[in-house]
Amino acid sequence: MNNPRLPTYARCSACRHPDHERYEQRIIDGTITQTQAAQAMGIEQSTLSRHMNQCLHRRLAEAGLKPAQVEAEVPNVLKHAVDAHKTTLELIDEAHAAGDLRACFMGLQTELKQLQFLATLTGQTDSSPELNLYLTSDYITLQQVLITSLADFPEARMKLSEALARLSSGAGAQGGDA
Ligand SMILES: [Zn+2]
Q: 26 near 37, Cβ under 8 Å?
């Protein structure tokens, strides 16, 4: 029992599922919901949710501690997170093409979460999380894409610009100006 690859955390039924990495990937990509994945894997949705929030993070933490042993998993997850980012931008584009502004805004929220996840994965949140996030080139590109994609909707575009400016200016910016 001295397999060096054996994780030190308790493995749940999702961890033990032979295809768990594939389902993790699809959940992160947004091509399947946790509920659908749980059904397909034959486990409780709450177990899968806990797995995604805890086991996956612990596995990454372990990977950080022992990069040589689990080297393959880190770029794998990172790659999928980056792919998910691209997919989200495409979906925002499609939502815009369909004239669905609400979906555009939901896309922005999803994108922010993905960027936060990416920032965590790449260690960009260590010192000053929010500031670093809003300074990333990804986030700046995202802002430009969103604002450009709303070109035909000046009112929504203005509101989005204001909301983005408030976000990136940090806490305390309570836009009460005229
Ligand atoms: Zn697990």
A: yes
**Residue ranges covered by each domain of the chain:** 11-69, 72-170
Per the confidence metrics, is the pTM higher than 0.70? no
Q: Which of 52, 75, 65, 81 is nearest to 7 (CA)?
A: 65
CA 81 / ligand 1 centre spacing (Å) = 19
CA of 18 to the centre of ligand 1 (A): 12
Q: Residue 147 Cα, ligand 1 centroid: separation in angstroms?
A: 39
Structure-token pair, residue 105: 């805004």
Instruction: Summarize pLDDT for 105-164 with one digit per residue, the tens.
Output: 888 888 888 888 888 777 776 555 445 566 677 777 787 888 888 888 888 888 888 888
Name the residues around ion ligand 1, CB cutoff 5 A.
12, 14-15, 51, 55
